[in-house]
Design a protein that fits this description.
This protein is an alpha/beta fold and about 200 residues long. Helices cover about 25% and strands about 20% of the residues. It folds into two domains: about 40 residues, no CATH class; about 150 residues, Rossmann fold, CATH 3.40.50. Helix 3 packs antiparallel against helix 4.
Length: about 200
């Protein structure tokens, strides 16, 4: 789903390591004698949003919780890698080590590996969910990957305008889904399957 405002913008900034080369404006760069990249702000509104919600109940057994968290991280980074290899930039939202909610644009095939190290460095805080108030609104698609897709998962999606564009990724086909959102899981052959 693309809106009419997704045509390339005319604002530019100087190239920064990690910017996709397809955004380099070569004509302008040759005139300025330095690499300049397009700022296509409209692109952000059509990027799928992937939310990593590593929710751990304070009553959960740590061993079981870690296995579920590992599966969700594997699912999220498999999806991110798949999207970026297909040329689809996406936004990953996750909780930082400081407890802040971070949004990172993933548009470079090498970036998911670097981002994975950041996510793995974060200690999971019991009974805390990701909050999308700052990042919600109108998104073309939102995938919420969570270790617990119970009724509280809807609190995460409250910030999304169009609920028809929300899907879940659960730990397994037996994960509970107390919402109306479709839920997927990553099977042992690394295929996403609808529950």
């Amino acid at each position: 789903m693309f809106s009419a405002n997704t045509s390339p913008g005319y604002e530019h900034r100087e190239y920064v390591h990690g910017d996709p080369l397809k955004r380099v404006n070569w004509k302008l760069s040759s005139k300025k004698d330095k690499l300049m990249v397009r700022l296509d702000e409209a692109v952000a509104s059509v990027q799928p949003m992937i939310v990593l919600d590593l929710y751990r109940s304070s009553s959960a057994k740590p061993e079981e919780a870690i296995l579920g968290e590992e599966q969700i991280i594997r699912s999220v980074f498999g999806l991110l890698s798949l999207l970026v290899k297909q040329g689809i930039a996406s936004t990953l939202i996750y909780r930082s080590a400081g407890g802040d909610i971070i949004a990172e644009s993933v548009d470079n095939p090498e970036y998911p590996e670097q981002l994975l190290l950041k996510v793995l460095a974060v200690k999971v805080t019991a009974d805390e969910r990701v909050d999308l108030k700052m990042y919600g609104g109108s998104v073309c698609a939102c995938v919420i990957a969570s270790t617990d897709c119970g009724a509280e998962i809807e609190t995460i999606s409250e910030a999304i305008d169009d609920k028809d564009n929300v899907s879940l990724i659960g730990v397994s086909p037996t994960s509970r889904n107390l919402t109306d959102f479709p839920m997927w899981y990553l099977d042992g052959d690394n295929n996403f399957k609808l529950v």
